[in-house]
Description:
Elements: E1 2-5, H1 30-34, E2 47-50, E3 61-64, E4 72-73, E5 77-83, E6 86-94, E7 107-110, E8 123-124, H2 130-136, E9 141-145, H3 155-162, H4 171-189, E10 194-199, H5 203-212, E11 217-223, E12 241-245, H6 246-254, H7 267-279, E13 291-295, H8 297-306, E14 320-326, H9 334-343, E15 350-355, H10 368-380
Parallel strand pairs: 1-15, 7-9, 7-10, 10-11, 11-14, 14-15
Antiparallel strand pairs: 2-3, 4-8, 5-6, 6-9, 12-13
Helix pairs in contact: 4-5
Amino acid sequence: xxxxxxxxxxxxxxxxxxxxxxxxxxxxxxxxxxxxxxxxxxxxxxxxxxxxxxxxxxxxxxxxxxxxxxxxxxxxxxxxxxxxxxxxxxxxxxxxxxxxxxxxxxxxxxxxxxxxxxxxxxxxxxxxxxxxxxxxxxxxxxxxxxxxxxxxxxxxxxxxxxxxxxxxxxxxxxxxxxxxxxxxxxxxxxxxxxxxxxxxxxxxxxxxxxxxxxxxxxxxxxxxxxxxxxxxxxxxxxxxxxxxxxxxxxxxxxxxxxxxxxxxxxxxxxxxxxxxxxxxxxxxxxxxxxxxxxxxxxxxxxxxxxxxxxxxxxxxxxxxxxxxxxxxxxxxxxxxxxxxxxxxxxxxxxxxxxxxxxxxxxxxxxxxxxxxxxxxxxxxxxxxxxx
Length: 387
């Protein structure tokens, strides 16, 4: 086992020189046309006009896949995975630089509970996303959106199609979608193994998948991992979905930062990201206030884990595993990661890193460069036997 606390490296400000073209709330759609804002050339259909006066904040909101010239989503290739007995899911492919030699193992990114991969690993801040950084290190990155997120089929539509009803998006169900994505990547990349980077709740289905497919996973990165906590499993009746507003996401994004510390997220970034978040659900503007509908299965999984009923057995994971988080992370504490460390008894190697000045969403914060560097070093390192 290796446990480290990483001292912060000093980077020049990546925010200097940003020219944000964020339209003020309520301004007309013509703002984009008059200012010649560059929209996304990729094939993601994020173009919609949402008209609402629900809160007084938005009177005519254009979400056109472009909000700022430097902060944007970029997806090179989009693939649709259809199944008659399961929801249709979309997987985004961010290919490695054409100058790279073929990488032995591609990277599969598993998103968290409330927003899809293109707003996480694929989201560009100052013209660079986490996927870009991995691409420059010659990794192909594949990011599936699970049912109910982004362009993947919503559970409400799928449940109507097969005439079923249950709490959607539980780990055991999502890891089946992950299995479909992994099989697709195997066939497309012509590889036997791959590595996984998972964030937040996504570490649960990713861990379950790695535990049940030990021969498929080369390396496993659990970023902001959910651990088991001892407590009484509360009997909570959940609706099938929940609605997430921009305001609630904003509050969640900044809640880990201590009050006496300078912000680790730029306000212009938060506004840009929020508009694109609404665009990920084409029905968001029909609600008051505008909001994104996501499955509640992740809430049920986290509730079970924190009630002592962890959804899978980490001792079945054999891949070398990196546990990494920010020091302020309230959802992935020292105790959570200590439990995971001790439970990963069959892993070839377990490395535990806590990064300074970061929260649960460190991949979108100013400390993201530290996170990216540590993950790259882990993925590029040679497979090792257990210490």
